Amino acid sequence: MYRFDTDLTVPVVGAPMAGGPSTPALTAAVSRAGGFGFHGGAYVSPDTLRDDVRATRALTDRPFGVNLFVPERVDVDATAFAAYRERLTPLADRVGVELPEQVAFTDDAFPAKIDVLVDERVPVVSFTFGLPDRAVIDRLHDAGIAVSSTVTSVDEARLAVEAGVDSLCAQGFSAGGHRAMFAIADADPRIDTLDLVAAVADLGLPTVGAGGVGSADDVRAILDAGAVAAQIGTLLLRTREAGTRQAHKDALADPRFTRTVTTRAYSGRLARGLENEFIRANDGRAPSAYPQVNTLTGGIRKAASTDPDVINLWAGSGFRSARVATAADVIAGLVG
Ligand SMILES: Cc1cc2nc3c(=O)[nH]c(=O)nc-3n(C[C@H](O)[C@H](O)[C@H](O)COP(=O)(O)O)c2cc1C
Q1: What is the 182 CA–ligand 1 centroid distance (Å)?
Q2: 20 to 30 A from 146, CA-CA: which of 19, 66, 68, 103?
Q3: What residues contact 256, with CB distance under 8 A and at least 6 apart?
Q4: Closest-CA residue to 45 (of 132, 116, 145)
């Protein structure tokens, strides 16, 4: 079974980035460079996930992983949801889309995706937004697949250790994209990457540190804090292999965007991105309902896909260091 503490040549993990940035080319490029590429398996169908896994395998013989979001069924506050829909209606009208009256919960085909990953014997499967049932972890292990859990606190890390995972990804507060809290309603523990890595690594499992990496010094600090590798997301967003929307790539280098913030405005779950008009107008208004709010805003984001003041510009605090380069060049610059 794959082990992050002994099997990595280069101590860099490429973050899974569902919703566009993750591509087979990016995942394979990170693994080919000696790091470990993770593919974001959320938001796509099981068939597409299977195709992506096979396409990645066609590009590299080296191990790689797939990340899934663990579904959490929560009751949606219908009044708050309707109020948020109402709030977004003028913007929806402006970009020419009709907002759905109601949005049903979906598990993003989680069980069928587990079937695909078991069938395809993907070397590592990681989970974000909580832990799957023990039976899922056992099934992956029986197939020779190592299991990783993304955690934002030591309490979550302890739960993951008890559940029998093989490694942990400690996601600090500065990380780009969705915050990985196990429960949607949880407050963000807001723990700095290095503090979290040090505390989580003490539990004894190989720990990957994520959040805010912009330089070789940041990687070194994460390793010194006790991690076996540093995970980079934002630094890969502008690479040639990433499927990031052009408006998102450009915004990362645009002096108009000066800081990142966390917000539930796009998806109902907290996520860190460049502060733009959409966030300024809607932060603090969305109910904690995922994936319902994500689906609600999805049509707007699709229709306005070239407008950086409308789309989600997920980014970590090190976003200014994201360069146009190949993934191999980015990794070489971190460990060279
Ligand atoms: C655009 C984007 C999409 C992301 N999608 C996922 C995802 O699908 N699954 C996941 O576990 N983490 C996701 N993350 C979070 C990363 O795994 C990682 O924690 C983060 O990128 C590290 O911080 P950094 O962006 O400052 O390097 C995403 C991050 C970004 C920037």
Answers
A1: 15
A2: 19
A3: none
A4: 116
- For residues 154 and 189, the answer to whether their CB atoms sit within 8 Å is no
73 contacts 108 by C-beta, under 8 angstroms: no
Predicted confidence (pLDDT) per residue in 53-62, tens digit: 999 999 999 9
The full set of domain ranges for the chain reads 1-71+108-242+323-336, 74-105+258-312
Question: Residue 291, preceding bond cis, omega within 30 degrees?
Answer: yes
Phi, psi of 273 (to 5 degrees): -150, 170
| Percent of the chain surpassing pLDDT 70 | 100
190-225 burial, b at 16+ Cβ within 10 Å, e below that, comes to: ebebbebbbbbbeeebbbbbbbbbbeeebbebbbeb
* pLDDT tier at 227, thresholds 50, 70, 90: very high
How many whole angstroms separate alpha carbon 75 and alpha carbon 86? 20
pLDDT tens digits along 25-35? 999 999 999 99
pLDDT in tens, 118-154: 999 999 999 999 999 999 999 999 999 999 999 999 9
Q: How confident is the model at residue 75 (pLDDT cuts 50, 70, 90)?
A: confident
| pLDDT above 90: percentage of residues in the chain | 99
Q: How does strand 177-178 pair with strand 207-210?
A: unpaired
Q: How far apart are CA 3 and CA 202, in angstroms?
A: 17
Q: Which atom of ligand 1 is nearest to the CA of 319?
A: 26
212, HSE (Cβ side, Cα atoms, 13 Å) = 22
Q: What's domain 1-71+108-242+323-336's architecture?
A: Alpha-Beta Barrel (3.20)
Residues in the ligand 1 pocket, defined by CB under 6 Å: 15-18, 21, 40, 42, 67, 128, 150, 171, 174-178, 210-213, 231-235, 314-316, 318
In whole angstroms, give the CA distance from residue 227 to residue 205. Answer: 10
